[in-house]
UniProtKB/TrEMBL annotation:
It is found in: Mitochondrion matrix. InterPro entries: aa-tRNA-synth_I_CS, aa-tRNA-synth_Ic, Rossmann-like_a/b/a_fold, Trp-tRNA-ligase, Trp-tRNA-ligase_bac-type, Trp-tRNA_synthetase. One of its GO terms (molecular function) is tryptophan-tRNA ligase activity. Belongs to the class-I aminoacyl-tRNA synthetase family. This is Tryptophan--tRNA ligase, mitochondrial. Coiled coil: none annotated. It is an enzyme of class 6 (ligase). GO terms for cellular component: mitochondrial matrix. Pfam families: tRNA-synt_1b. One of its GO terms (biological process) is mitochondrial tryptophanyl-tRNA aminoacylation. It catalyses: tRNA(Trp) + L-tryptophan + ATP = L-tryptophyl-tRNA(Trp) + AMP + diphosphate + H(+).
Length: 381
């Protein structure tokens, strides 16, 4: 979220720092008790190593709140998307461990397998079957206009001195994975998808493909619903070393991010080394004091406090006081789930059985979809 001036920035952070209370409102989630029962909510996450604080405050926390606030008759479905991870080179052993760690992370931080369907995407072949069917009605032009594809192509060109670098430098999976993403959603005839605004274009493709399929094969009944985007309150946590950029797993500097598995001493060391500024006092000014403002934002999120209330506590104090309090607040928020994560990741049999149970529940739903799809396209007798 970008704000044009200080007052606007404060209003933005005030809204974000109350995201927990806003999200528990039925209006904000779109999952009202009345008139909205029976929705199907779907989202996925890649198994790309241990999540960091930005992932938790920006996505996972919202998943948990969505699950806990959903109507009892809503289907809540979360998947770990291993096939999507293959669009970039992977070490097989590391990917296998990352899958397990991601499942343990989701459970440790509040995803309840009794309330939500949780499974590995690659355990349900309905996704790839539907992806192939949808690929046969997807114009190549639509895929070439996808922002992710264009950005990957631009990055490849910038990394290569030869001017003739073109699409042939990238793999087909990167080109077609938005279709698989649409299949992930439509296999469950999902009605709502909680994703950030950076995924809006991909969700629009899912809606377009659902509409194309309906008009081609089922113009009367409109078999696939057009999934709606659930814009969830999303806090933008910045790098501790470069507050002009988001906190990211891809940064080569491990000190730039707080991993959900970091110990209390590691958290304290990283916060103590966070970039701030040499100005006196503590004020919230994302434009001129991004590092200081980032720490205030993190503290407000951990304590579920209004940003102005947090700032007032540091009148006449320096960065040392602020960093100490931020480190303590982050540790208090993470220590319980961290301990549960460490326990779960050691119990591989439990995680394996839970994933299989989740996959069976997912298959039960998607098989019904695919049986009707095959009938409509003429591949079922």
């Amino acid at each position: 979220m970008f704000c044009s001036n200080l007052n606007a920035a404060r209003l933005c952070l005030r809204s974000l720092s109350r995201h927990t209370r806003l999200y528990s409102s039925r209006t904000s989630t779109g999952l009202e008790n009345k008139n909205n029962a029976g929705r199907v909510v779907f989202s996925g996450i890649q198994p790309t190593g241990i999540l960091h604080l930005g992932n938790y405050l920006g996505a996972l926390l919202n998943w948990v709140k969505l699950q806990n606030e959903a109507h009892p008759t809503d289907d809540i479905i979360f998947t770990i998307v291993g096939w999507h991870a293959l669009t970039l080179p992977q070490n097989a052993k590391e990917l296998s461990q990352s899958r397990t760690d991601m499942l343990a992370t989701l459970l440790a931080f509040g995803i309840d397998p009794k309330r939500s369907v949780v499974f590995y995407q690659e355990d349900n072949q309905c996704h790839v079957e539907l992806s192939w069917i949808l690929s046969c009605i997807t114009p190549i032009g639509k895929l070439r206009r996808m922002t992710t594809w264009k950005s990957r192509l631009a990055a490849k060109r910038n990394a290569n001195d030869e001017s003739e670098v073109d699409e042939s430098m990238l793999n087909a999976g990167l080109f077609t994975y938005p279709i698989l993403q649409a299949a992930d959603i439509l296999a469950y005839r999902a009605t709502h998808v909680p994703v950030g605004e950076d995924q809006t274009q991909h969700l629009e493709l899912s809606r377009d493909l659902a509409d194309t399929f309906n008009r081609t094969f089922d113009p009367q009944k409109k078999f696939f619903p057009l999934p709606s985007q659930l814009i969830t309150p999303c806090r933008r946590v910045l790098s501790l070393k470069d507050p002009s950029a988001k906190m990211s797993k891809s940064s080569p500097d491990i000190s730039s991010r707080i991993l959900l598995t970091d110990s209390g001493s590691q958290i304290e060391r990283k916060i103590r080394g966070a970039v701030t500024d040499s100005l006196q006092g503590i004020t919230y000014d994302p434009v001129n004091r991004p590092g200081t403002s980032n720490l205030l934002s993190i503290l407000a999120a951990c304590e579920d406090q209004d940003i102005d209330n947090v700032v007032r506590r540091y009148e006449g104090k320096g960065h040392g006081y602020l960093k100490k309090d931020v480190a303590e607040a982050v540790e208090n928020m993470l220590k319980g789930p961290r301990a549960e994560f460490e326990r779960l990741r050691q119990d591989k049999e439990y995680l394996s059985n839970l994933a299989k149970e989740g996959a069976e529940r997912a298959k039960e739903r998607s098989r019904r979809t695919m049986q009707e799809v095959r009938t409509m396209i003429g591949l079922y007798s």
